[in-house]
Amino acid sequence: MRITFLGGTETVTGSKYLVESGATRILVDCGLFQGYKRLRERNWQPLPLDLNQLDGIVLTHAHLDHSGYIPRLSQQGYRKPVFTHPATKALCGILLPDSGRIQEEDARFHARHRLGKHAFPQPLYDRAAAGRSLELFKPVEFGEIFSIGSIKLHLQAAGHILGAGSLIVEAEGKRVGFSGDVGRPDDVLMNPPDPLPDLDLLLLESTYGNRRHAETDPLDQLATIVNETVGKGGALLIPSFAVGRAQALQHLLATLKQTGRIADLPVYLDSPMAVSVADIYCRYSAQHRLSHDQCHHMCELATYTRGVEESKALAGQRFPHIIIAGSGMATGGRILHHLKRLLRDHRTLVLFTGYQAGGTRGAKMLSGAESVKIHGEWVPVKARIEVIHGLSGHADYVEIQHWLARSQLTENTAIKLVHGEPESLEAMRDHLRRTTRYGVEVASYQSILSL
């Protein structure tokens, strides 16, 4: 068996791993590169493989850094199945067309305002291409064993978001695990990840390889932030991922309103995608902690803005109010228009809800940037910038260590670290070498590993 690392190495985006066994070739995850321009440019480069010889794709979960490149491959002629959990299929049915729509809108905006170096900027793929790619999806349940050529596979629950799984691959007498994104044991929404079986090799995510999650109760922190914003008469802008994070925020805000800990101020969910995702969370209730009533309250919390005109109308809303909009790292989407309008106001508070990849606007604002570039314009940052702790869907390095300890791995298990920034990967490697018995190395981009 041979594994080629085509993404998700030395960065937290672009996850793609080519697995070859005999004449069988599969791709584990098929994600977009995000963040730094040098990474985003990889999305436009052809993959170093023959799509006609690719027998299947398996997705660990729906987030675009793991799924968002599928429409591009579909455009290029890929017609084989995409295997994944039914909840991941449902979420991709929302995420992928929305990704295409945003790229179309951004391309039109850049063309209209003559931004960038291209006279006629084009999207990587459009909404129609994303819709066509969904026809390739084939659902498989957790624990269901299936085969692609000579390779046997199954997914097991990994927490993180609905449908997220760790993938177990067996071929040539070897068993390899792909952790995917590993959830937390005490996540606000999701159940904890299932322990792993015995493996010869584990590709392990390292997003929080150098950081612990704070002990702060996110409910308390959110109550304080909302009340401080209300006291100033300002707006609370929350860039949020539409899957997982937006639902957690809705649940927490609904709880705070029900218990009287915050005022009954207007909350706007300016994300058509997140609106639809909430329904899927209610459909797959066995995977998360919320009761039927809690799901109902979560969905009733906010005023939903579906169309562009409704989104623009938020500029005329009375203060104070809360706007939740994508994207979570402020790389695109409707949050940019709200930031462009409100970042200049010292009464505004921008609340990030999780990890911000290097090179994103979110990372720049959290590092204290005095201005950020939005739609070709440098916008001064006068607003207060904060991050809420405890909402990340990723286990930190100690939580992952405990997950490994609950698993059936042995001292013969080798670990390759993926899906982390360089400093996180190095810290994770050092920690696991010091505290566990596994052989641990860091994977590098386009490297090849033979088992």
Sheet with the most strands, sense and barrel status = 7 strands, mixed
CA(first)-CA(last) distance: 5 Å
Large-scale geometry: globular
User: How many helices?
Assistant: 14
Structural class by SSE content: alpha/beta
Cα-atom radius of gyration? 21 Å
Overall domain count: 2
Roughly what is the average pLDDT, rounded to an integer?
A: 93
Unreliable stretches covering 5 or more consecutive residues: none
Helical fraction: 25-40%
> Strand order of the main beta sheet, please?
6-5-4-3-2-1-22
CATH class of the largest domain: Alpha Beta
CATH superfamily membership of the largest domain = Ribonuclease Z/Hydroxyacylglutathione hydrolase-like
Give your account of this protein's structure:
The structure is a single chain. β17 (371-374) and β18 form a beta hairpin. The chain has 451 residues and is α/β, with parallel strands linked by helices. It is built from 14 helices and 22 strands. It has a seven-stranded mixed beta sheet with strand order 6-5-4-3-2-1-22. A seven-stranded mixed beta sheet has the order 7-8-9-10-11-20-21, with helices on one face. It is 31% helix and 22% strand. It has helices spanning 37-40, 64-67, 70-75, 86-112, 127-133, 218-232, 245-258, 272-283, 292-300, 308-313, 335-342, 361-366, 397-406, 422-435; strands at 2-7, 16-21, 24-30, 56-58, 82-84, 137-139, 146-148, 151-157, 165-171, 174-178, 201-205, 235-239, 267-270, 303-304, 321-325, 349-352, 371-374, 377-380, 384-387, 414-418, 439-442, 448-450. The radius of gyration is 21 Å and the shape is globular. The protein has two domains: 2-211 and 393-450, 4-Layer Sandwich (Metallo-beta-lactamase, Chain A); 218-387, Rossmann fold (3-Layer(aba) Sandwich), CATH 3.40.50.10890.
